[in-house]
Amino acid sequence: MTNGCFFSLSILVTAFVGTAIAFACFTGAAMVARRREYLYLGGLLSSGLSILLWLQLAGSIFGHSATSFMFEVYFGLLIFLGYVVYDTQEIIERAHRGDMDHVKHALTLFTDFVAVLVRVLVIMVSELFPLGDDAGLLPRIILVE
């Protein structure tokens, strides 16, 4: 018996394209904004990430519900889209100060992209296969063509 979701590869492509568009829009907004305009978000985003950690810990102790799981997914999506803006501005600021570590900067943005992609994919799959009140952990996702 498998505990998985079977869905078409088109859902993965749609999630990837949607994530790429959102990533481009938020990165573009950070690039055209005034210098250092969004760097204040670092503390707020770190606090939000800490809240997500504590929600996960509480959920593992007291049990998850479908509502709390989806709240964590949407809140995480908001946090990581904020990190796209913050990290883009931080990279621009570091480049102005002479830090030209392109690999590190690319990996930072790649990590943000993957975090957003995973959450968008979970949202799209949960629309196809609604979670019940006894959601527990997210089932394994199995791609089929």
If you had to describe this structure to a student in words, what would you say it looks like?
It comes from Zea mays (Maize). With 145 residues, the chain is mainly alpha-helical. The chain has one domain (9-139). It is built from four helices and two strands; from the N terminus they run E-H-H-H-H-E. Helix 1 packs across helix 3.
* Tally of domains: 1
Give a quick account of the main beta sheet: strands, pairing sense, barrel closure. Answer: 2 strands, parallel
What would the average pLDDT be, to the nearest integer? 88
Widest sheet, order of strands: 1-2
What does this entry show, briefly?
Belongs to the BI1 family. This protein is mostly helical and 145 residues long.
Q: Which helices and strands appear, and what pairs or packs with what?
A:
Elements: E1 4-8, H1 9-32, H2 41-62, H3 66-96, H4 102-128, E2 140-144
Parallel strand pairs: 1-2
Helix pairs in contact: 1-3, 1-4, 2-3, 3-4
